[in-house]
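lol ok so funny story. i was supposed to be doing the assay writeup but got distracted and ended up predicting the structure for this chain instead. priorities right. anyway since i did it might as well share w the group, maybe its usefull for someone
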Amino acid sequence: MDNHPHEISLNDLQKLFPGTVTDTLSDDFFIAEIHQHEVLDILKYPCRLDGYMAVFCLEGELKAEIDLKTYDIHENSVIINLPGNISRIYSIEDDQLDRLHFVVVAVSSDFLSSSRMDYVRMFNESIAVLDNPCFEMNGDERAIFSRYFELVDALVRNSPKGLKQVLRNIVSSCLYYAGSIWQEKLLTAERPKSNGEQTMRAKLVLEQFLKLVAEYHDRERAMGFYADKLCLTPKYLSKIIKNASGKSGPEWIDSFVILEAKNMLKYSVMPIKEIVYKLHFPNASVFYKFFKSHTGLTPSEYRG
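and the output, tada:
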């Protein structure tokens, strides 16, 4: 297996955790309890999951990398993965191999969109997860999550009628609770003060814009393209994005392109001219100038 980021579906992820309590019940959600470090070894390769995932560390320590940023995961850590994130296990110390104990909760994007819960409200600050994907549970929060997992285990062993729908609701509730804790912890960070319907509207437009940028940044860089998709004028969209996030639309687009370029340079052996082609730059000279202006290094220097 090479180091190029691999696209992983929820079904692929389930195959990495055979015999888990929900792996035969649904194609769009599951819960896995992990003790085997061999499974985590598989995740040392960079991968991009097409769903939402929360990983709860109950015991042990390791380093994880999300979008080229390294995080120390230890007892009571929770790390959240959003669609499009490139993640991998960075390292596991030998003395931790027998201590690792994690619970993974993952759902597809369709699962969230079909849920009756107001995930849009819950994730209306989700842009912050780009910089804050990891948080720590306190004792009470860990105890509540433990009860969720114990309840799932008891239900699967008793197999009541309608088990699949019951588990769907429990998974929804667990993720909603995790998201609310994460949001609450982010509130400790300083934010611009604003309120009302206009603020909520701006946040929703920002979320929609970023989803589109995540999908099209490798080939569409003009604000006009995204404005057309959102049925807004480029000027009005630019104003909303700047007010809602503090960064301009082009800055967001460039940050996605730079991250994609860094991942290709670091995780693949493809020639730089192929990266230029995949990212739809007109020529290598333009790509080199763009990359150096944002990183201070040429692509070759960054690759090392």
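The mean pLDDT is 80. The chain has 13 helices and ten strands.
back to the writeup now i swear
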